[in-house]
Amino acid sequence: MFCPNCGTNNIENNANYCSQCGKKLNMDTSKKRKINILSFMLPIISSIIVAVIIFSTQYFESKVNEKVLKFQDKAERAALSGEYKKALSLLDDAIAYRNNYKILLEEKKMIESVLELNDDLNEVEQKIMDEHFEAAQKEINLLKRQVDKNESPLYAKLTHEIEQVESSVKIGEIKEEINKLSTINQLAEKLSTIYSLDLKEASELKQQIYTKMVILSSTEAEKNLENNHFNQALYQVDAALQYVVNNEKLISLKERIIEEKASFEKAQQERIDKAMLAAKQEEQLNLTKAVELTGLDFKVDKFGDAYMNGTVKNNGTETVHSILVEFFVTDKDGVILEKGKTNVFPNKLDPGETGEFEHVTYSTKNDAKVEITKISWLLEEKKG
């Protein structure tokens, strides 16, 4: 029981006056009972309120922590996937709830470092695209030294990416070397070195060499084919087919070379046959029809002597010499008065040139006649 005037507690239940202030208590029994109940309930109610406040606070804090952990987990996943900017954004969301959370701040700092290194790696890749391989390798060496100082899974992923980029440098250097090679043998030697390299891109390099072999072989074979150098063309194709086995383009080209070679040889043989035939015909012409009688004049003077003058022409294709004209001189009854021969001068006639001949038959009659019976000659002996 307590005093309503001074608030003193622990007053005896049956007391009429306050032992502290002396004021009359003036309370009936029911009122006293209420006061007693209230004095009992107040601590309980206070405890409940405090408990609710504590529980609410803890619940709110747990929910905040839950959000922070979700942001943190998503950020870590994003970072491991290489989405560094997304990871930073998620960490900023988490830090907005827990700006004094040391782990979040450290993770943010780490991802910012990885992002910076990743940007540097992108610049290295650009150098590779620009074929600045030496500069790219120097940058890679620097990045490797920086990454090797850390053991985080984020750096492990970056290490793997750096190794891939370094492989690209090696590939780029080899490709540059391949582009400078200009023969099948050089490409074959480079191919043997690639087999010894432990590179994932080795198959790509081999394919590039095979492709260049096909191009070189086809180009050289086409040049030889234009000049009818069929054997050289076949050699070029076969040299590449040793390495690029069953390549359809080369096989097709080889078939074409063989067909054109056979066609050329057939046409060449036909030309030879025709030339031989023409030569025989020409020889026959030169032997039988080269020299032609182009003019003949036969006159008998007042003394009965007959004067014969004539011309011949070389219609052949070779020089002729020792031309001999044979003739008969007859009277009006056909009786042979003279059977003679006369030489043409000059002795040698080139193709298209003309020569003359003459003869006198003595003691003929005015009505004597002459008949050219034969013209013979010799061909100029061929040298060489």
Number of strands: 7
Helix content: 55-70%
Order of helices and strands: HHHHHHHHHEEEEEEE
- Category by helix and strand content: alpha+beta
In the predicted model, the low-confidence regions spanning at least 5 consecutive residues are none
Query: How many alpha or pi helices?
Result: 9
Distance between the termini: 158 Å
How much of the residues is beta strand, in percent? Answer: 15-25%
Mean of pLDDT: 81
Taken from the alpha-carbon principal axes, the silhouette is: rod-shaped
**Radius of gyration from the alpha-carbon trace, in angstroms:** 62 Å
Q: How many structural domains?
A: 3
What's the story with the biggest beta sheet?
A: 4 strands, antiparallel
Architecture overview:
- The chain has 384 residues and is an alpha+beta fold.
- It has three domains: 100 residues, no CATH class; 82 residues; 89 residues, Immunoglobulin-like (Sandwich), CATH 2.60.40.3230.
- It contains nine helices and seven strands; from the N terminus they run αααααααααβββββββ.
- Strands 3, 4, 5 and 7 form a four-stranded antiparallel sheet that branches. It has a three-stranded antiparallel sheet with strand order 1-2-6, with no helix packed on it.
- Helix 8 packs antiparallel against helix 9.
- It is rod-shaped, with a radius of gyration of 62 Å.
- The model has no long low-confidence stretch (mean pLDDT 81).
